[in-house]
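User: For my dataset I need records formatted as: sequence, then structure tokens, nothing else. Please produce one.
Assistant:
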Amino acid sequence: MVKPFPIEVIEESLYEIREKIYPRSVTGFFARWRIVCIVVTQALFYGLPWLSWNHRQAVLFDLVQRKFYIFGLVLWPQDIIYLTFLLILSALALFLFTAVAGRLFCGYACPQTVYTEIFMWIERRIEGDRFKRMALDDQSWPWGILKWRKKITKHFLWILIAVYTGFTFVGYFTPIKVLSIAIGSLSLGPWQLFWLVFYSFATWGNAGFMREQVCKYMCPYARFQSVMVDKDTFLVTYDKLRGEPRGSRNKSDDQQLLGLGDCVDCSICVQVCPTDIDIRDGMQYMCIGCGACIDACNQVMDKLAYPKGLIRYTTENTVENKVSNHHALQHILRPRVLIYTTIIVILTSLFLISLIARNPLRIDIMRDRGAMAREVDGLRVENIYRIQIMNSSEYPMRIHVHASGLDDLHILNDRGHEIDEIQIEPSSNHLFPMKVSTELGEYHPGSYPIRFMFTVHELLEKKVVIREISEKSSFIVLR
């Protein structure tokens, strides 16, 4: 009898346990630009809801009233074509920026990057830079009073920023002044409370804890960016021809005698990276293009009196051909960039022309399906219509209605009174029942085309604009 061989069971996790990253602070050209972008984007985000325009909030997406206010522009659900244009333009702009400069948006304007930078700045101010934070987290239980104080202070400030961010986000959908009063009086609606808590928690969790995990594993842009770049795309690039072979040395050593490149293998470029990658390993989808490694490497090069630019924003062709960035700039206008730019220019032009030519008044005439026609007192034949009038401007309008196509047409309201003028409030939508009648016996039974003429008086601030709108319909004569 043959004995079976012993089977060794090996268990291996397919999920890599995350190790906390402690990015080192860095100063330099790209760090300053990141600060500028953070200030600009957050000034816009936090400031826009408080701006007023025509006695209302300048930017407000009022889902209850189904009206979107963007400064002087008022959009209704029927204006979804404009939202479609904006989404297409945003996608194409992202493709264009990626083709030219890689993940430029991720490094400087993405909300995940921006709030992570804000939270990390607070963390550094309270707990110290990289090595102090690492030492603080290595302290075993029980925690000391100093560690408790620092952790509680940090999270208090994080939550404070997260809650105000959630409050501002909800303020784009509910008038922010009304929202402030509701919070003060503890009378928030269920949906307002839900989104306030949800967005605050998401900001606190994503920027405070998940950080680079969002960029690495949750963001789809990181996965498909590689198909939009080529050898002429500007990326954060390590110059292997100049840096290799890498190795440590003293400042006084002659690197040529040692047979070493300019890279001293100090790993500072890895220590400052917010996603904990080594840029010297080549292009990686986790790189967000923030340029922190460029600033760090340039500081090391300065100390060693080596030329800057061992890590720099450049193209693959530039490094391989050993040419300057000026040569790379001459290859920016390549086919894919020209195609993206042309499409963006065309769509932007169509978008602007459509907005300029947009009629602020919309009129739809619908026949009453319940009664096609009816006799009134045996003298007249009457058709019933419903007129929907939408005023998308922020000024009142007076509208005179007249019908033509048949003799002796009279326009009456639902009470039987003749309509002379219709008053429309600013940014409003009204549905009016309307009766149109003519003398009975004047026409043979059948359907006759008629036309409604609307003379619109738009009451602007210091002038009256008059325009005319006509709509076709039909009038039914009974047998």
